[in-house]
Write a structure and sequence with these properties.
alpha/beta, TIM Barrel, twelve-stranded mixed beta sheet, 17% strand
């Protein structure tokens, strides 16, 4: 069983399969000047499957596939199919921007993908273009329609940004009236590749107050174990609303997750430094036992929370990294 020095059970892996993305969301990366990883720098599917199988044997029960945008990597469905067959893996989920995803929804359902997080910061096509710098709104909405058609659990993730999409908060909340979706609003984080200065005006409290002004009957739900969101529901609505305090980090105390970047760096905290490179170990010929020992040592030293991790990473370019290279 994987546990850190604070006694927390670590059973959730966020696995980024690529740093590349077909959108250029300004809060994630600069518009130009991105140095994508070469193919040899990325973990191969075989390497990802190997390290995932070891982690599942050690107690990881849930894997979320992230990017960049996962579906820009060739043959992703073949990898997901093999990953879904790992004995002991209880839940396979996916985060996507939805641009390329719609045709794959039936296959995702078939292999047992439990839920899909769909990044969607606005319901206005013009604001979508301004935020993402790409005209792909129709394709994202087609993915949402396909996910609902096939009965998939859907979480819509919207990053709230001052002067960009705050007027979309209430229209997105309104989606929960007739759709069985969870609309989750995320505080803007500084992981944007140095493209701009993140504003922290729209924090958890400001977002919640905005929703409550329109829906004073908003009811607090009991949050699931290890939840990163505070969850609510409007009476009579099919779906729910969540707020993720990603920058104020009030959920860190119960953290049960680790991350693997596309190049194989293990991060025990989003705000912390890389603590181990599993790709380098595998390519150096380290056997399964050696990998297990290295993982146990690294995860055992996981920081108490995001504030402590950021303090330990002081002076390193952690906060100037893009979410695409970290793994969204």
């Amino acid at each position: 069983m994987l546990r850190d020095s604070h006694g927390r059970k670590i059973n959730y892996l966020r696995l980024a399969v690529t740093d590349r993305c077909n959108l250029r969301c300004f809060y994630c990366m600069p518009e130009e000047g991105l140095n994508w990883l070469s193919r040899t720098e990325l973990m191969s599917y075989e390497e990802m499957l190997h390290i995932s199988s070891i982690l599942v044997r050690m107690g990881v029960e849930k894997i979320r596939i992230t990017g960049g945008e996962p579906f820009v990597r060739k043959d992703l469905m073949s990898f997901l199919t093999r990953l879904s067959q790992l004995q002991g893996l209880r839940q396979l989920t996916l985060t996507t921007n939805g641009v390329l995803t719609a045709p794959f929804v039936p296959a995702l359902q078939k292999i047992g993908v439990a839920s899909v997080n769909l990044s969607l910061d606005t319901l206005d096509p013009e604001r979508f273009l301004a935020i993402t710098r790409r005209d792909e709104f129709a394709n994202v909405m087609a993915t949402l329609d396909a996910l609902l058609k096939y009965g998939m659990e859907v979480k819509i993730n919207a990053v709230v940004m001052e002067g960009k999409n705050t007027e979309d908060i209430l229209p997105l909340v309104q989606l929960t009236k007739d759709m069985p979706v969870s609309v989750r609003f995320i505080e803007e984080m500084p992981f944007n590749g140095g493209s701009h200065q993140a504003s922290l005006t729209w924090n958890y409290v400001q977002i919640l107050n905005t929703i409550r002004e329109k829906y004073p009957q908003l009811k607090k739900l009991q949050d699931p174990p290890f939840s990163t969101s505070f969850n609510y529901q409007i009476p009579g609505h099919k779906g729910s609303v969540g707020i993720i305090p990603a920058y104020t980090r009030s959920f860190c105390g119960s953290c049960n997750r680790i991350r693997l970047t596309p190049q194989g760096d293990l991060k025990t905290c989003l705000y912390g430094k890389n603590v181990l490179n599993v790709k380098d170990l595998m390519r150096a010929g380290t056997d399964a036992g050696g990998l297990e020992n290295a993982l146990l040592h690294a995860i055992g030293n996981k920081e108490k929370d995001g504030w402590e991790a950021a303090q330990h990473a002081a002076g390193l370019p952690v906060l100037n990294a893009s979410m695409a290279t970290i793994g969204g």
